[in-house]
Write a structure and sequence with these properties.
This protein has one helix and no strands. The termini are far apart. The protein is low in regular secondary structure and 69 residues long. The chain has one domain (1-69). The protein has one helix at residues 62-65.
Length: 69
């Protein structure tokens, strides 16, 4: 339970979808220099200037997804 008394789903690892997050912080390191913590410099991307979207939810129920088609 979190501090509000709500049960939360365990967080999955962003690098390995078959693993629960154990706060190893491996996902925070730079892809180009494994000794550097990522500072979002975007040198690992082909284009430094890009647009982004924030994904707030993934709908897996086909009936609910029809609302967004």
């Amino acid at each position: 339970m979190n501090r509000n008394g709500v049960n939360q789903m365990p967080k999955l690892c962003v690098l390995d979808e078959n693993k629960l997050c154990d706060n190893c912080s491996e996902c925070n390191y730079c892809d180009l220099d494994s000794t550097k913590i990522c500072d979002n410099c975007c040198e690992c991307l082909d284009e430094g200037d890009y647009r982004a979207i924030k994904i707030t939810d993934i709908i897996t129920d086909p009936e609910k997804a029809t609302v967004y088609k």
